[in-house]
Specification:
Elements lengths: L4 E2 L20 E5 L4 E7 L8 E4 L2 E3 L3 E3 L13
Antiparallel strand pairs: 1-6, 2-3, 2-6, 3-4, 4-5
Length: 78
């Protein structure tokens, strides 16, 4: 499973496809110091510094990680 990455250590690659992600638009798990949510690291239209966005709007983020890989085994009879 992936580990949380501090935004002080590394930011997501804007062009990387996160392997194992159920979503294809660069969505990540993000943490803002008190909540874990789904969000994305996005480039602004004005080409200023990229920002973090979630369903809360533009937020400050302390840590992020790609989605973990899904299960590799298939349950019989399901």
């Amino acid at each position: 499973m992936s580990e949380w990455i501090s935004v002080d250590e590394r930011l997501p690659d804007m062009h990387e496809v996160y392997k194992g992600s159920p979503l294809t638009s660069g969505y990540l798990l993000i943490f803002n110091g008190s909540n874990v949510t789904i969000g994305e690291y996005e480039q602004t239209f004005s080409k200023r510094k990229p920002r973090w966005r979630s369903h809360y709007g533009v937020i400050s983020v302390t840590h992020w990680m790609p989605f973990p890989h899904g299960p590799t085994e298939v349950l019989e009879g399901k």
